[in-house]
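WARN retry 2 of 3 for item q-0093 after timeout on previous attempt; input resubmitted unchanged.
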Amino acid sequence: MHHDATELLIDGALGEGGGQILRTSLALSLCLQKPFRIVNIRRARRNPGLRPQHLAAVRAAAELGDAHVDGADIGSRELRFAPSALRHGRHAFDIGTAGSTMLVLQTLLPALIRAAGPSVLHLQGGTHNPNAPPFEFLDRAFAPLLRRMGAVVQLRLERPGFYPAGGGAVSADVQPASRLRGLHLLQRGAIKGLRARAMVAHLPDHIAQRELRVLQESLQIPPAECVAQRAEAAVGQGNAVMVFVESEMLTEVFSGFGQRGVRAETVARRVADEAAEYLAAHVPVGRYLSDQLLLPLALAGTGEFITLEPSSHARTNASVIQQFLNIDVAFEAEQRGPGGACPCVPGCRPDERNAVLNLRHRHGPVAGGPGMASARTSLSRAGTRTFSGSFSHASML
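OK item q-0093 returned
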Protein backbone atom coordinates (compact mmCIF):
# COMPACT_ATOMS: atom_id res chain seq x y z
CA MET A 1 0.00 0.00 0.00
CA HIS A 2 1.38 3.42 -0.96
CA HIS A 3 2.60 5.48 1.98
CA ASP A 4 1.89 9.21 2.12
CA ALA A 5 4.27 11.10 4.39
CA THR A 6 1.47 13.51 5.36
CA GLU A 7 -0.94 10.85 6.58
CA LEU A 8 -1.32 9.88 10.22
CA LEU A 9 -0.43 6.29 11.13
CA ILE A 10 -2.84 4.58 13.54
CA ASP A 11 -2.11 1.19 15.08
CA GLY A 12 -5.38 -0.72 15.27
CA ALA A 13 -3.89 -3.43 17.49
CA LEU A 14 -3.33 -1.30 20.58
CA GLY A 15 -5.47 -2.02 23.63
CA GLU A 16 -8.34 -4.34 22.79
CA GLY A 17 -7.78 -3.51 19.14
CA GLY A 18 -11.40 -3.21 18.06
CA GLY A 19 -13.50 -1.35 15.52
CA GLN A 20 -13.88 1.82 17.58
CA ILE A 21 -10.32 2.82 16.69
CA LEU A 22 -11.33 2.81 13.02
CA ARG A 23 -14.61 4.66 13.57
CA THR A 24 -13.05 7.41 15.66
CA SER A 25 -10.27 7.78 13.07
CA LEU A 26 -12.81 8.07 10.26
CA ALA A 27 -14.82 10.69 12.17
CA LEU A 28 -11.79 12.84 12.95
CA SER A 29 -10.35 12.43 9.44
CA LEU A 30 -13.59 13.83 8.01
CA CYS A 31 -13.76 16.67 10.54
CA LEU A 32 -10.17 17.76 10.07
CA GLN A 33 -9.74 16.69 6.42
CA LYS A 34 -6.66 14.79 7.51
CA PRO A 35 -5.62 11.51 5.79
CA PHE A 36 -4.70 8.47 7.87
CA ARG A 37 -3.53 4.91 7.50
CA ILE A 38 -4.58 2.27 10.00
CA VAL A 39 -2.75 -1.04 10.31
CA ASN A 40 -3.42 -4.22 12.31
CA ILE A 41 -7.19 -3.70 12.15
CA ARG A 42 -8.89 -5.92 14.75
CA ARG A 43 -5.80 -8.16 14.72
CA ALA A 44 -6.65 -10.07 17.91
CA ARG A 45 -10.29 -10.74 17.04
CA ARG A 46 -11.59 -14.17 16.10
CA ASN A 47 -12.38 -12.79 12.63
CA PRO A 48 -9.65 -10.16 12.24
CA GLY A 49 -9.70 -7.32 9.77
CA LEU A 50 -12.67 -5.43 8.39
CA ARG A 51 -16.14 -6.98 8.73
CA PRO A 52 -19.27 -5.80 6.86
CA GLN A 53 -20.31 -3.38 9.62
CA HIS A 54 -16.88 -1.72 9.55
CA LEU A 55 -16.90 -1.50 5.75
CA ALA A 56 -20.29 0.20 5.97
CA ALA A 57 -18.77 2.96 8.09
CA VAL A 58 -15.77 3.26 5.74
CA ARG A 59 -17.91 3.53 2.62
CA ALA A 60 -20.31 6.00 4.21
CA ALA A 61 -17.42 8.17 5.40
CA ALA A 62 -15.81 7.94 1.95
CA GLU A 63 -18.99 9.25 0.31
CA LEU A 64 -19.26 12.15 2.74
CA GLY A 65 -15.60 13.02 2.33
CA ASP A 66 -15.07 12.31 -1.39
CA ALA A 67 -12.25 10.20 -0.04
CA HIS A 68 -9.63 8.08 -1.76
CA VAL A 69 -9.64 4.70 -0.01
CA ASP A 70 -7.29 1.74 -0.26
CA GLY A 71 -7.91 -1.57 1.47
CA ALA A 72 -11.71 -1.40 1.84
CA ASP A 73 -12.29 -5.16 1.59
CA ILE A 74 -13.64 -7.87 3.88
CA GLY A 75 -10.81 -9.16 6.03
CA SER A 76 -8.46 -6.29 5.21
CA ARG A 77 -6.17 -5.44 8.12
CA GLU A 78 -4.88 -2.20 6.67
CA LEU A 79 -6.76 0.80 5.32
CA ARG A 80 -5.80 4.15 3.86
CA PHE A 81 -8.36 6.98 3.95
CA ALA A 82 -7.76 10.42 2.41
CA PRO A 83 -10.74 12.82 2.34
CA SER A 84 -10.84 15.71 -0.11
CA ALA A 85 -14.10 17.46 0.86
CA LEU A 86 -17.05 17.32 3.24
CA ARG A 87 -20.34 16.87 1.44
CA HIS A 88 -23.54 17.87 3.17
CA GLY A 89 -26.96 17.12 1.71
CA ARG A 90 -28.95 13.91 1.39
CA HIS A 91 -27.24 10.55 1.89
CA ALA A 92 -28.58 6.99 2.13
CA PHE A 93 -26.56 4.01 3.33
CA ASP A 94 -27.66 0.37 3.55
CA ILE A 95 -25.36 -1.68 5.74
CA GLY A 96 -26.70 -4.82 4.08
CA THR A 97 -26.50 -6.81 7.33
CA ALA A 98 -27.75 -6.49 10.89
CA GLY A 99 -24.71 -4.34 11.62
CA SER A 100 -25.43 -1.34 13.81
CA THR A 101 -26.73 1.76 12.05
CA MET A 102 -26.04 3.63 15.29
CA LEU A 103 -22.29 3.01 15.07
CA VAL A 104 -22.28 4.26 11.48
CA LEU A 105 -24.31 7.29 12.51
CA GLN A 106 -21.87 8.04 15.33
CA THR A 107 -19.05 7.93 12.79
CA LEU A 108 -20.72 10.49 10.52
CA LEU A 109 -22.36 12.88 12.98
CA PRO A 110 -19.23 14.78 14.13
CA ALA A 111 -18.44 15.76 10.55
CA LEU A 112 -22.01 16.65 9.63
CA ILE A 113 -22.45 18.96 12.62
CA ARG A 114 -19.44 20.90 11.29
CA ALA A 115 -20.42 20.84 7.60
CA ALA A 116 -21.23 23.89 5.48
CA GLY A 117 -24.95 23.11 5.25
CA PRO A 118 -27.74 20.83 6.50
CA SER A 119 -27.86 17.10 5.83
CA VAL A 120 -30.39 14.28 5.85
CA LEU A 121 -29.19 10.73 6.48
CA HIS A 122 -31.14 7.54 5.90
CA LEU A 123 -29.58 4.36 7.29
CA GLN A 124 -30.76 0.76 7.00
CA GLY A 125 -29.55 -2.16 9.09
CA GLY A 126 -29.65 -2.93 12.81
CA THR A 127 -31.03 -0.33 15.22
CA HIS A 128 -30.99 -2.46 18.39
CA ASN A 129 -27.79 -4.51 18.51
CA PRO A 130 -25.78 -6.11 21.31
CA ASN A 131 -22.47 -4.30 21.97
CA ALA A 132 -23.77 -1.10 20.39
CA PRO A 133 -25.99 1.73 21.65
CA PRO A 134 -29.65 1.44 20.65
CA PHE A 135 -31.54 4.13 18.79
CA GLU A 136 -33.03 5.44 22.04
CA PHE A 137 -29.58 6.15 23.48
CA LEU A 138 -28.68 8.48 20.64
CA ASP A 139 -32.16 10.00 20.49
CA ARG A 140 -32.74 10.62 24.21
CA ALA A 141 -29.22 10.95 25.69
CA PHE A 142 -26.68 12.00 23.04
CA ALA A 143 -28.57 14.13 20.50
CA PRO A 144 -30.03 16.53 23.13
CA LEU A 145 -26.50 17.32 24.32
CA LEU A 146 -25.36 17.98 20.76
CA ARG A 147 -28.28 20.39 20.45
CA ARG A 148 -27.12 22.11 23.61
CA MET A 149 -23.70 22.49 21.98
CA GLY A 150 -25.29 24.28 19.02
CA ALA A 151 -25.95 21.54 16.46
CA VAL A 152 -29.55 20.58 15.75
CA VAL A 153 -29.84 16.80 15.35
CA GLN A 154 -33.29 15.22 14.99
CA LEU A 155 -33.54 11.41 14.81
CA ARG A 156 -36.45 9.22 13.66
CA LEU A 157 -36.83 5.48 14.12
CA GLU A 158 -38.75 4.38 11.04
CA ARG A 159 -38.48 0.65 11.65
CA PRO A 160 -36.61 -1.25 14.38
CA GLY A 161 -34.05 -3.83 13.30
CA PHE A 162 -32.75 -6.52 15.61
CA TYR A 163 -29.78 -8.88 15.35
CA PRO A 164 -29.49 -11.09 13.33
CA ALA A 165 -32.27 -10.19 10.85
CA GLY A 166 -31.55 -6.45 10.64
CA GLY A 167 -33.90 -4.62 8.29
CA GLY A 168 -34.26 -1.55 10.49
CA ALA A 169 -34.36 2.03 9.24
CA VAL A 170 -33.47 5.32 10.90
CA SER A 171 -33.25 8.89 9.63
CA ALA A 172 -31.30 11.88 10.90
CA ASP A 173 -31.77 15.56 10.09
CA VAL A 174 -28.64 17.54 10.91
CA GLN A 175 -28.35 21.32 11.07
CA PRO A 176 -24.67 22.12 11.64
CA ALA A 177 -23.24 24.57 14.15
CA SER A 178 -20.96 27.38 13.02
CA ARG A 179 -19.13 26.86 16.29
CA LEU A 180 -19.66 24.16 18.89
CA ARG A 181 -20.18 25.29 22.45
CA GLY A 182 -18.63 23.37 25.31
CA LEU A 183 -20.62 21.48 27.93
CA HIS A 184 -20.19 21.72 31.70
CA LEU A 185 -22.02 18.82 33.33
CA LEU A 186 -20.88 18.86 36.94
CA GLN A 187 -24.19 18.13 38.65
CA ARG A 188 -27.05 15.84 37.79
CA GLY A 189 -29.69 17.65 39.78
CA ALA A 190 -32.87 16.05 41.00
CA ILE A 191 -34.21 12.95 39.30
CA LYS A 192 -37.36 13.99 37.46
CA GLY A 193 -38.43 10.54 36.34
CA LEU A 194 -37.52 6.87 35.97
CA ARG A 195 -39.07 5.04 33.03
CA ALA A 196 -38.73 1.57 31.58
CA ARG A 197 -39.57 0.15 28.18
CA ALA A 198 -39.43 -3.46 27.02
CA MET A 199 -39.74 -4.04 23.28
CA VAL A 200 -40.49 -7.40 21.67
CA ALA A 201 -40.66 -8.23 17.98
CA HIS A 202 -42.46 -11.43 16.97
CA LEU A 203 -41.94 -12.89 20.44
CA PRO A 204 -44.39 -13.62 23.29
CA ASP A 205 -45.61 -10.64 25.31
CA HIS A 206 -44.70 -12.32 28.59
CA ILE A 207 -41.00 -11.68 27.88
CA ALA A 208 -41.53 -7.93 28.09
CA GLN A 209 -43.79 -8.26 31.13
CA ARG A 210 -41.21 -10.30 33.03
CA GLU A 211 -38.47 -7.80 32.22
CA LEU A 212 -40.58 -4.87 33.34
CA ARG A 213 -41.44 -6.64 36.60
CA VAL A 214 -37.73 -6.93 37.43
CA LEU A 215 -37.06 -3.28 36.61
CA GLN A 216 -40.06 -2.10 38.58
CA GLU A 217 -39.01 -4.02 41.67
CA SER A 218 -35.26 -3.32 41.41
CA LEU A 219 -35.41 0.42 40.67
CA GLN A 220 -38.77 1.32 42.22
CA ILE A 221 -40.13 2.51 38.88
CA PRO A 222 -43.82 3.37 39.05
CA PRO A 223 -46.00 0.82 37.20
CA ALA A 224 -47.42 3.55 34.98
CA GLU A 225 -43.90 4.28 33.72
CA CYS A 226 -43.22 0.66 32.70
CA VAL A 227 -44.31 0.18 29.09
CA ALA A 228 -44.34 -2.98 26.99
CA GLN A 229 -44.08 -2.32 23.27
CA ARG A 230 -44.63 -4.66 20.34
CA ALA A 231 -42.41 -3.89 17.35
CA GLU A 232 -44.72 -5.22 14.66
CA ALA A 233 -42.82 -3.54 11.83
CA ALA A 234 -39.58 -5.35 12.61
CA VAL A 235 -38.38 -7.86 10.04
CA GLY A 236 -37.23 -10.54 12.48
CA GLN A 237 -37.46 -11.51 16.12
CA GLY A 238 -35.90 -9.37 18.79
CA ASN A 239 -36.09 -8.00 22.32
CA ALA A 240 -34.70 -4.82 23.85
CA VAL A 241 -35.19 -3.47 27.36
CA MET A 242 -34.34 0.09 28.36
CA VAL A 243 -34.32 2.31 31.43
CA PHE A 244 -34.53 6.10 31.07
CA VAL A 245 -33.22 8.22 33.95
CA GLU A 246 -34.44 11.79 33.50
CA SER A 247 -32.72 14.41 35.62
CA GLU A 248 -32.62 18.19 35.66
CA MET A 249 -29.48 18.29 33.51
CA LEU A 250 -29.86 15.40 31.06
CA THR A 251 -31.37 11.99 30.32
CA GLU A 252 -29.39 8.78 30.61
CA VAL A 253 -30.36 5.53 28.87
CA PHE A 254 -29.40 2.00 29.91
CA SER A 255 -30.20 -0.95 27.68
CA GLY A 256 -29.99 -4.70 27.26
CA PHE A 257 -30.97 -7.19 24.57
CA GLY A 258 -32.61 -10.57 24.73
CA GLN A 259 -30.50 -13.56 23.74
CA ARG A 260 -31.43 -17.12 23.01
CA GLY A 261 -30.91 -19.18 26.15
CA VAL A 262 -30.81 -16.18 28.50
CA ARG A 263 -33.82 -15.65 30.75
CA ALA A 264 -35.73 -12.40 30.44
CA GLU A 265 -35.18 -11.75 34.14
CA THR A 266 -31.42 -12.00 33.66
CA VAL A 267 -31.46 -9.50 30.79
CA ALA A 268 -33.50 -7.02 32.84
CA ARG A 269 -31.40 -7.50 35.97
CA ARG A 270 -28.23 -6.56 34.10
CA VAL A 271 -29.88 -3.33 32.92
CA ALA A 272 -31.15 -2.62 36.42
CA ASP A 273 -27.65 -3.10 37.85
CA GLU A 274 -26.17 -0.59 35.37
CA ALA A 275 -28.85 1.97 36.15
CA ALA A 276 -28.46 1.41 39.89
CA GLU A 277 -24.68 1.93 39.66
CA TYR A 278 -25.25 5.24 37.89
CA LEU A 279 -27.85 6.39 40.43
CA ALA A 280 -25.69 5.41 43.39
CA ALA A 281 -22.65 7.27 42.04
CA HIS A 282 -24.61 10.54 41.90
CA VAL A 283 -22.82 11.59 38.69
CA PRO A 284 -24.53 13.38 35.78
CA VAL A 285 -22.92 11.40 32.94
CA GLY A 286 -22.97 7.62 32.62
CA ARG A 287 -20.10 5.49 31.41
CA TYR A 288 -21.22 5.01 27.80
CA LEU A 289 -22.37 8.59 27.32
CA SER A 290 -19.00 9.83 28.55
CA ASP A 291 -17.34 7.86 25.75
CA GLN A 292 -19.48 9.61 23.16
CA LEU A 293 -18.98 13.10 24.56
CA LEU A 294 -15.19 13.05 24.32
CA LEU A 295 -15.05 13.73 20.59
CA PRO A 296 -17.55 16.62 20.31
CA LEU A 297 -16.09 18.28 23.41
CA ALA A 298 -12.60 18.00 21.95
CA LEU A 299 -13.85 19.59 18.72
CA ALA A 300 -15.53 22.35 20.73
CA GLY A 301 -12.25 22.96 22.53
CA THR A 302 -13.75 23.16 26.00
CA GLY A 303 -16.01 21.31 28.42
CA GLU A 304 -16.10 19.18 31.52
CA PHE A 305 -18.28 16.56 33.12
CA ILE A 306 -18.39 14.15 36.03
CA THR A 307 -18.90 10.48 35.30
CA LEU A 308 -17.95 6.95 36.36
CA GLU A 309 -14.58 5.20 36.21
CA PRO A 310 -12.94 5.52 32.77
CA SER A 311 -13.77 2.60 30.49
CA SER A 312 -11.33 1.10 28.02
CA HIS A 313 -13.61 2.48 25.31
CA ALA A 314 -13.20 6.02 26.66
CA ARG A 315 -9.45 5.62 26.81
CA THR A 316 -9.47 4.46 23.20
CA ASN A 317 -11.26 7.59 22.12
CA ALA A 318 -8.92 9.75 24.19
CA SER A 319 -5.89 8.13 22.58
CA VAL A 320 -7.13 8.52 19.01
CA ILE A 321 -8.31 12.08 19.63
CA GLN A 322 -4.90 12.88 21.07
CA GLN A 323 -3.18 11.73 17.89
CA PHE A 324 -5.47 13.63 15.51
CA LEU A 325 -5.88 16.85 17.45
CA ASN A 326 -2.35 17.10 18.84
CA ILE A 327 -3.50 17.40 22.44
CA ASP A 328 -2.23 16.07 25.75
CA VAL A 329 -4.66 13.87 27.65
CA ALA A 330 -4.33 13.12 31.35
CA PHE A 331 -6.59 11.12 33.65
CA GLU A 332 -5.91 12.21 37.21
CA ALA A 333 -7.51 10.31 40.08
CA GLU A 334 -8.66 12.51 42.92
CA GLN A 335 -9.72 11.31 46.35
CA ARG A 336 -12.37 13.27 48.19
CA GLY A 337 -13.92 12.96 51.57
CA PRO A 338 -17.09 11.02 52.38
CA GLY A 339 -20.14 12.44 50.66
CA GLY A 340 -23.50 13.12 52.14
CA ALA A 341 -26.79 11.59 51.15
CA CYS A 342 -27.73 11.91 47.51
CA PRO A 343 -30.57 14.45 47.17
CA CYS A 344 -32.17 12.70 44.20
CA VAL A 345 -32.64 9.10 45.37
CA PRO A 346 -33.55 8.24 48.99
CA GLY A 347 -30.87 6.18 50.68
CA CYS A 348 -28.33 6.76 47.87
CA ARG A 349 -24.83 8.00 48.71
CA PRO A 350 -22.43 9.40 46.11
CA ASP A 351 -19.17 7.63 45.36
CA GLU A 352 -16.28 8.98 47.40
CA ARG A 353 -13.70 8.94 44.60
CA ASN A 354 -13.18 11.14 41.57
CA ALA A 355 -10.73 11.22 38.69
CA VAL A 356 -10.12 14.15 36.38
CA LEU A 357 -9.31 14.02 32.67
CA ASN A 358 -7.63 17.10 31.20
CA LEU A 359 -7.31 17.77 27.45
CA ARG A 360 -4.91 20.54 26.44
CA HIS A 361 -3.93 21.58 22.94
CA ARG A 362 -0.18 21.42 22.46
CA HIS A 363 0.22 24.02 19.71
CA GLY A 364 -2.38 26.59 18.68
CA PRO A 365 -5.91 25.98 17.38
CA VAL A 366 -7.52 22.72 16.42
CA ALA A 367 -6.94 22.07 12.74
CA GLY A 368 -10.11 22.73 10.85
CA GLY A 369 -11.85 23.87 14.02
CA PRO A 370 -12.51 27.05 15.97
CA GLY A 371 -9.39 29.11 16.62
CA MET A 372 -8.15 29.16 20.19
CA ALA A 373 -4.66 29.17 21.60
CA SER A 374 -5.48 26.76 24.41
CA ALA A 375 -8.43 24.86 25.81
CA ARG A 376 -9.16 22.47 28.61
CA THR A 377 -11.64 19.66 28.96
CA SER A 378 -11.87 18.03 32.37
CA LEU A 379 -13.86 14.91 33.10
CA SER A 380 -14.28 13.60 36.64
CA ARG A 381 -14.62 9.86 36.98
CA ALA A 382 -14.76 7.48 39.92
CA GLY A 383 -11.42 5.76 40.48
CA THR A 384 -8.68 5.03 42.99
CA ARG A 385 -5.48 5.44 40.94
CA THR A 386 -3.85 8.49 39.43
CA PHE A 387 -3.74 8.46 35.63
CA SER A 388 -1.69 10.78 33.48
CA GLY A 389 -0.37 10.97 29.94
CA SER A 390 -1.62 8.92 27.02
CA PHE A 391 -3.50 5.66 27.18
CA SER A 392 -3.61 2.43 25.22
CA HIS A 393 -6.34 1.93 22.65
CA ALA A 394 -9.29 -0.33 23.35
CA SER A 395 -12.74 -0.91 21.90
CA MET A 396 -16.19 -2.39 22.30
CA LEU A 397 -16.22 -4.20 18.97
